[in-house]
Amino acid sequence: MELRAWIAIANFPPPDDEKRWESFFDALQDVGGELGPVLGGGGGVTEVVVSADADDYPGFVAEAVGCVADALRAAGLYRSYPAKIEVERVPADELMGAR
To answer: Which positions ≥6 away from 58 have C-beta within 8 Å?
Structure first.
């Protein structure tokens, strides 16, 4: 089954700080690229969205949050942290190749 997580990050730099956003995203690709991370922000909230083929919800959450935390440290964003996570099973009609 495919699981998807939205991870909100507290104390993240504002969107106009492109250098720090790029540094974080590069680090995120290095530590969690297999999760297909997407970085976005709006309304004062910065989120990372990741997904993986997994049956183990706690294991998926630990991996996803761990990758985000590791990337924050690698990018030197020591005051930022994963603050909230939402997880869902990806509906079958959203999976690639679904008919």
So the answer is: none
* CATH code of residue 41: 3.30.70.120
The reported pTM is: 0.88
8 Å CB contact between 52 and 3: yes
Is residue 80 situated within a structural domain? yes
How many whole angstroms separate alpha carbon 10 and alpha carbon 23? 17
Strand 45-53 and strand 38-42: the pairing is: antiparallel
pLDDT in tens, 20-47: 999 999 999 999 999 999 998 877 789 9
State how far the Cα of 94 lies from the Cα of 99, in Å rounded to an integer. 9
| Phi and psi, residue 75, nearest 5° | -85, 0
Q: Provide the residue range defining the domain that includes 76.
A: 2-92
Number of domains in the chain: 1
- CA angle at residue 84 from 22 to 49, to 5 degrees? 45
Q: Which two tokens stand for residue 30?
A: 């290095």
